[in-house]
Amino acid sequence: MVQLQNQFLQNSPSAGDGTMVADELLEPDVQIITSGGRIIPAHSRILASASPVVERLITSPQKRRSSDRKIHILGVPYDAVSAFVQFLYSSKCDEEHMEKYGIHLLALSHVYFVPQLKQNCTRGLAERLTIENVVDILQLARLCDAPDLYVKCLKLLSNNFNTVEETEGWKFLQNHDPWLELEILRFMDEAESRKKRTRRHREEQSLYLQLSEAMDCLEHICTEGCTSVGPYDMDPSKNKGPCSKFLTCHGLQLSIKHFVTCKRRVNGGCLRCKRMWQLFRLHSSICDQTDECRVPLCRQFKLKVEEDRIQDDATWRLLVRKVVSAKAVCSLSLAKRKREDEPRVAMNYY
Ligand SMILES: [Zn+2]
Ligand SMILES: [Zn+2]
Ligand SMILES: [Zn+2]
Known about the structure:
single chain; 3-stranded mixed sheet; mainly alpha; binds zinc ion; zinc-finger; rod-shaped
């Protein structure tokens, strides 16, 4: 206890204010009774200033009257209470105490409303989470209303469920707290479907991006030509390329060549031609050029839509919308990259 007093005297802003304060400090006026009856003498003013709950305990009419004031902190090891009191004096908690009594300190900081200690414990315990202790800490975090720690526990638990399931902690929880077990299982279920949704979304996005890239390539093949395919009225030696999207462009060129020469196409018996035909139709759906468009079938598709000879169903319209937005996202990020590149290009030039 002497150690505590000295520490406080060093840290206290009022040290040196006058002898009265110092005298008061030197004389402990409250006793903290711990499990096993061991006593920690302390200063009521310091405890009260650090914890509103202790303050209420000390200033209650009953306690004020009694000459020997006592606070009972039971159910926690003596050393943990000592570390807690030390925090109330110094606002500091060393790593060793956190390591040994983190769980107890979290409970005490919650019960006696010491937010700074609670924050330290939440962080300290989160750093020390293991497969073995995660269930215990999860239960404690829930009891002590520490949501950050609670979510961290849930994540660790659901990522390692097969091993956590084998621990004593989990078995105990299953037998004693079926509601919490249910809550955890539900969280895991939601996390799993969240993961699935994200994966599906990413796959879809990449498909739309591929399609939007194919649309760009189709346009540039049909207007300026790329390596081996170009507009019929253009000198093939003037074909440009290979372009920046040559992987897609090359595949598309092969498909166009096939489309032009395929014999089975006529009766709709060729899957490859069907795909090419869909790409032409997709182009027509997103093309905003009226007469000048040089992509084959663009005008024909537009006419057919106008004459109501083909119906764009909802799925098709959704596909068109997604490809258009993928195209927009792509050109935006390209523009951004270009802007970032510009200074470098300029520097090279000079
Ligand atoms: Zn190309
Ligand atoms: Zn074919
Ligand atoms: Zn077009």
